[in-house]
Amino acid sequence: MQREMAAGSFGKTDVADWSARVYGKQKFAGAGKTNTGWLVPLERRLAKFVLPRVPRWLETYHLTLLTPVWAILIVVFSYLAEHDLRWLWMVNLMIVFHYFTDHFDGKLGKFRDTGLRKWGFYMDHLFDYGFLCSILIGYSFLLPQRAIFIMMLVLCVFSSFMFHTFLMLAATEEFKVSFSRFGPTELRIALIVINALLVRFGTRGLRGALPWVAGCGTVALVLLAYRAQKRLWQSDMLAKQADCKVNRPPCISYNQTRIRSV
After folding, report:
1. What span, in angstroms and rounded, lies between the C-alpha atoms of 56 and 185?
2. Which residues contact 102 (CB under 8 A, 6 or more apart)?
3. Strand 33-34 relative to strand 175-176: parallel, antiparallel, unpaired?
4. Which of 14, 142, 207, 247 is the most buried (most CB within 10 A)?
5. What is the dihedral of CA 123, 128, 129, 135, to 10 degrees?
């Protein structure tokens, strides 16, 4: 009955308030994500339908704390897939479960105004890193020993994307979790497709693709870092010019520096 009342009370008059609470600017910058992924419009429609219907006993922190469960099960099923690749279908199921708990934990907290902004930010992303590690640990069971170095390189590259996100959050107070039109949901879909291909065609293609994944990821990371430092340089120089105009201190003129739009 409570769930029906909550869903029923979510009418047209509540849309603006709901959207502002979940997707609007947050007091804590880490609680507001910027996502430009392809599937974001569909996900917002899904959130509008799901959030009012989540049982009252299920809280935002319950969803967050389920991520280690999915990560552990991914390692277990991947270990079993070493002998029978069909276990990768269970890995795919855990990825789907993780999508729902990870996608809705923060949104549910904002929708209900739970208030666990900083706790959610810390625990959610700590567990997300563990989830990433579980995926790569799982793939290591399917590869020969000599491929472990490449797996470590892939982990370093993907971890660097996460570090970039957090560094930009600290520098700009913008928490952008997508790169171009590729976000967390698109990454999960890619992993599900990869696992399906492994079940169908075996692991030989995975061994050949890993160096390309590491190489292309490194190139993308370098380009991302170049654009980021250029944007931050521009921001610093504009701030310096503004300070000089207001306070008129003895400012150093950098004639060789040109501020361009990113």
Report:
1. 26
2. 63, 67, 124, 128, 131, 184
3. parallel
4. 142
5. 150
Tokens standing for residue 242: 């503004």
Q: How far apart are CA 46 and CA 156, in angstroms?
A: 33
39 Cβ contact list (under 8 Å, min separation 6): 183, 185, 186
| Separation CA 31–CA 125 (nearest Å) | 11
CATH of 2-247, one of 3.40.30.10, 1.10.10.1800, 1.20.120.1760, 2.160.20.10: 1.20.120.1760
> Considering only CA atoms, which of 237, 233, 235 is closest in space to residue 245?
237
Location of structure tokens 């306070």: 247
Domain layout of the chain by residue ranges: 2-247
pLDDT, tens digit (0-9, with 9 covering 90-100), for 83-124: 999 999 999 999 999 999 999 998 898 888 888 889 989 999
Query: Which string of DSSP letters, residue by residue, matches 175-189?
Result: EE--BTTB-HHHHHH
Residues whose CB is less than 8 angstroms from the CB of residue 192 and which lie 6 or more positions away in sequence, other chains included: 92, 95, 96
Alpha helices (runs of H) in the chain, residue ranges in sequence order: 2-8, 15-23, 40-50, 60-64, 67-81, 88-112, 117-140, 148-172, 184-201, 204-247
What is the DSSP code (8-state) at residue 251?
A: P
Integer Cα distance of 125 and 257 in angstroms: 37
Q: Which of 22-26, 134-138, 191-195, 207-211 has the lowest mean pLDDT?
A: 22-26
In terms of Cα–Cα distance, which of 217, 3, 190 is closest to 99? 190
CA distance 91 to 87: 7
